[in-house]
UniProtKB/TrEMBL annotation:
Residues 335-354 are annotated as: Disordered. Signal peptide: none annotated. SUPFAM superfamilies: ARM repeat. Belongs to the HGH1 family. Residues 283-336 form the Protein HGH1 C-terminal domain. Pfam families: DUF383, DUF384. This is Protein HGH1 homolog.
Length: 354
């Protein structure tokens, strides 16, 4: 005989909405405590949960929360992420300006982006709501949602912060890196320029996802001239400001720095998240792969900033990243092996749980 908990899982698909609501609400804690109860009958409960994201908003909220937690499991993740029809429904709901569960949809999409084949989203298109002022390419819609979510101008119930993690994981794929550095016809903007402004945003989720996205795109060495060009991407201020604190520099060091880094206020704080600081330093190291990048960093006095970061951030990962960058910057260009260092882009293992 089925247990009471197994019976409760069976009520997910009950025709009575009140029973569905009670079942999904009471099952939320078990999606982290006993996820196996949802993996019976060839994942039939998960199939039912996928239907419920279009149910009454309260039922959909519980269903989405359960799915977010369950997709920490690889088998469930594959089952959900490979369902193209479900992905289409999720994306369609996500761009609806009246969608009450948009943040949860973004969180679920962030987990689904762990599935490598989701890179097919690079060419996916869907109808675009007039209010979004985007184009049919889903990637552009996600970016525009992310930008508008920062000030709540699109959906008053969503900030779309978790799309930062979606963009970070997708940018591990070369075809999506190309998207980020290619000017879009509908608005004439290079996509990475839309997100670089969030490297100092108040949301640690945004900052973390954007830092990882920029780093991933920086693995495309042919794009480095655009990264460094002040009239194109001009990424250096957006990498250096987050790792700069309120420390004082002598006049010679200060005057050689970028204007954005000169005479910072006394309350200027370095990003408090050591992982974000490390990511930015690693991106700077990637940009030393070319002679142009190394020369620019010497010209704009990156070394003193990295030196102070090394001294003031009590984190081994940050210090090791600073050491690697300094070794490149201080090396004589005539020495063997003076070329920059390109590190492997490790997968971002964040799985969202609620």
């Amino acid at each position: 005989m089925p247990t009471e908990l197994e019976e409760l899982v069976g009520f997910i698909a009950h025709p009575n909405p009140q029973i569905r609501k009670l079942a999904t609400e009471n099952l939320v804690p078990y999606s982290t405590e006993q996820p196996a109860i949802f993996k019976t009958d060839e994942l039939l409960p998960v199939k039912h949960l996928k239907f419920l994201i279009r149910d009454h908003p309260e039922i959909a909220e519980h269903a989405l929360t359960i799915l977010i937690n369950l997709t920490a499991d690889q088998s469930v993740l594959e089952f959900v992420a490979t369902d193209d029809r479900f992905l289409g429904i999720l994306l369609g709901n996500l761009v609806d300006p009246a969608e009450p569960n948009a943040n949860l949809l973004a969180m679920l999409l962030a987990n689904m982006a762990k599935w490598d084949d989701l890179k097919s989203i690079a060419t996916r298109k869907q109808e675009v709501p007039a209010a979004l002022q985007s184009n049919e390419l889903v990637l552009n819609q996600l970016l525009d949602l992310f930008v508008k979510g920062a000030d709540g101008t699109y959906n008053k119930q969503a900030d779309f912060d978790y799309l930062a993690y979606v963009l970070a994981d997708l940018s591990k794929h070369p075809e999506i890196r190309q998207f980020f550095i290619s000017k879009q016809e509908y608005d004439g903007v290079v996509p990475i320029n839309k997100i670089k402004v969030f490297t100092e945003h108040k949301s640690d989720i945004r900052r973390k996802g954007v830092a990882s996205t920029i780093k991933n795109v920086a693995f495309d060495v042919p794009a480095h001239p655009a990264f460094l060009d002040e009239d194109q991407i001009n990424i250096m201020p957006y990498l250096l400001l987050p790792i700069t604190g309120s420390e004082q520099y002598d006049d010679e060091e200060m005057m050689g720095m970028l204007p954005d880094l000169q005479l910072l206020p006394p309350d200027k704080q370095r990003d408090p998240d050591h992982n974000i600081v490390q990511t930015h330093v690693e991106t700077l190291t990637l940009l030393t792969t070319t002679r142009e990048g190394r020369d620019l960093m010497r010209q704009i006095n990156v070394y003193p900033i990295v030196r102070e970061t090394h001294l003031r951030v009590d984190d081994e990962g940050v210090r090791e990243a600073c050491d690697r960058l300094v070794q490149v910057l201080m090396r004589d260009e005539a020495e063997p092996g003076a070329e920059g260092i390109a590190e492997d882009d490790g997968e971002d293992e964040r799985i969202v749980e609620v």
